[in-house]
Amino acid sequence: MKVIILAAGQGIRLRPYTDNKPKCMVMLAGKALLHWQLMTLRSLGLQDITVVGGYLSTQLDAPDTKLILNPNYANSNMVSTLFCARELFTPGEDLLICYGDIVYQRNVLQSVIACESELCLAADRQWQKLWSLRMENPLDDAETFQLGPHNKVLELGKKPHSYDDVQAQYMGLIKIRGDCVEKFDVAYHNLDRDGLYDSKDFDNMYMTSFIQHLIDNEWDVSAALVNSGWLEVDTADELEHYNQLIKQGDLSSLFDLDKINAA
């Protein structure tokens, strides 16, 4: 299995912590987000890891990984960053895609790896607990995530009208089955470069918009459902709050650092 970590963004909402380092290098409990993630990946024997950098890429510290750059990081989004690593897509070999601003326990990664669908998304059923720590009104920043039978994903990435629209929360951890890697690439390159995708141009398309396109074209997209066990670090206030809660020992029910690389 190949692993691609998307770490090109500027992390504007994390300033001043990202004034002189990429978003994935900010410190959570004394260790960079990227280093926590690498620990989890390697605990399950995943060694073929590539980081796609952009903003302040010379400050990326990712031992024993490959580095690819998105030179247009300031004017593009996650999907464009992913396809900067297109050369690594190997038909027949599973591909794991990870956002650079998340950390997750080993059991979360195990759930995604075990999924046998064409495309699998880690999704948190207990997302409201985490979102309530992050903001006063969890619905303000949540996105729709609608499931059908057998955890098939029907819709994601839209603005929810109520909590009923959010059966889980997409986490930024994706696995593409090896026999689908080539058609994943083809699906992207067949998109209209002049089109709009959830009001975004091609280069700034959200990952959820691309995944929804695949769903609408009858891809078998499933959720690997988990109950907590991860964090997304998006703002300076969140980072400071998480670090304080970890110091106090009050975060372990949602995310346990001791389970980063242990069962």
UniProtKB/TrEMBL annotation:
* Single GO MF annotation: nucleotidyltransferase activity
The keyword Disulfide bond appears for this protein: no
Q: List the keywords (alphabetical).
A: Nucleotidyltransferase, Transferase
Does the record carry Ribonucleoprotein as a key word?
no
InterPro entries the record matches: GlmU-like, MobA-like_NTP_Trfase, Nucleotide-diphossugar_trans
Instruction: Report the residue ranges that make up the MobA-like NTP transferase domain in this protein.
Output: 3-115
Name this polypeptide is given: Sugar nucleotidyltransferase
Q: Which organism is it from?
A: hydrothermal vent metagenome
